[in-house]
C-alpha cells in the first residue's frame, strides 16, 4: 500500500516560514532603525524645544502650539470647568511638527545618508580601478605572450619548418625548439 503525501508534507510549516522571515538581514536592520529612530526623536524634540522655539519666541511666543486662528468664533480654549467653544485652527502645532520633521530629515541626510553615499561611491571607484588594473595586467600578459610567439616564429625563419621535421623537432640549440639569443 503506497502512502500519499499530505499537504502538510509538501509545504513548510508556518513556524519555519516565520523563522526564515525573522532571520533575513533586512528585518533586523529595520528593527534597529526603528529603535534608533525612537531614540533620535528625543534628540530632535530637544533641539526644537531648546533652540528653535526660543528663536521663534524672540518674534512671538516661545511655545509654537500657542499660534492658532479662530475659524468660527468666539474661540475659547477648554478649561477644567468649561468645554472649548468655536473652531480653532492650531497651525502652530503643525509648524512645530514640520520643523521637527525638517530637522530630523536634515540630520539624517547630512549625518547618515550623504556620508554613506560618498563612502559607497568611493568604494565603487576603488573597485572599478582595481578591475581596470586587473584587465590591464591581463592584456599586458597576453601582449607579452604574443611577442614571445612572434620572436620564436621569426627565429625559426623559412627553413625552421623543414629543419625541425628533418632533425626530429630539434634545431641544434639543445633541443629546446628555439635558438638562444
How many E strands?
A: 2
General form: elongated
Low-pLDDT windows of residues: 162-176
Helix/strand order, N-terminal first: HHHEEHH
Beta percentage is 5-15%
Overview of this structure, please?
The protein is mostly helical and 181 residues long. 66% of the residues lie in helices and 7% in strands. It is built from five helices and two strands; from the N terminus they run αααββαα. The chain has helices at 7-10, 14-23, 25-57, 91-156, 160-166; strands spanning 69-76, 85-89. Strands 1-2 form a two-stranded antiparallel sheet. β1 and β2 form a beta hairpin. α3 crosses α4. The radius of gyration is 39 Å and the shape is elongated. The protein starts with 6 loop residues before the first helix and ends in a 15-residue tail after the last helix. Mean pLDDT is 75; it is low at 162-176.
Short characterization:
The chain has 181 residues and is mainly α. It has 5 helices and 2 strands; from the N terminus they run H-H-H-E-E-H-H.
Summarize this structure as a short list of keywords or feature phrases.
single chain; 181 residues; mainly alpha; 2 strands
Task: Give the topology, please.
Blueprint: H1 7-10, H2 14-23, H3 25-57, E1 69-76, E2 85-89, H4 91-156, H5 160-166
Antiparallel strand pairs: 1-2
Helix pairs in contact: 3-4
Amino acid at each position: 500500500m503506497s502512502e500519499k503525501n499530505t499537504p502538510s508534507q509538501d509545504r513548510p510549516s508556518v513556524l519555519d516560514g516565520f523563522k526564515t522571515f525573522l532571520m533575513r538581514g533586512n528585518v533586523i536592520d529595520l528593527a534597529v532603525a526603528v529603535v534608533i529612530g525612537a531614540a533620535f526623536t528625543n534628540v530632535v524634540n530637544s533641539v526644537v524645544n531648546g533652540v528653535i522655539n526660543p528663536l521663534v519666541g524672540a518674534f512671538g511666543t516661545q511655545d509654537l502650539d500657542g499660534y492658532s486662528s479662530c475659524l468660527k468664533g468666539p474661540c475659547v480654549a477648554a478649561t477644567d470647568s468649561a468645554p472649548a467653544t468655536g473652531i480653532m485652527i492650531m497651525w502652530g502645532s503643525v509648524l512645530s511638527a514640520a520643523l521637527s520633521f525638517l530637522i530630523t530629515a536634515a540630520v539624517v541626510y547630512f549625518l547618515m545618508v550623504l556620508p554613506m553615499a560618498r563612502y559607497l561611491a568611493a568604494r565603487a571607484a576603488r573597485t572599478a580601478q582595481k578591475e581596470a588594473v586587473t584587465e590591464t595586467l591581463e592584456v599586458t600578459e597576453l601582449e607579452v605572450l604574443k611577442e614571445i610567439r612572434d620572436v620564436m616564429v621569426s627565429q625559426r625563419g623559412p627553413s625552421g619548418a623543414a629543419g625541425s621535421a628533418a632533425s626530429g623537432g630539434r634545431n641544434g640549440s639543445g633541443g629546446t625548439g628555439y635558438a638562444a639569443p
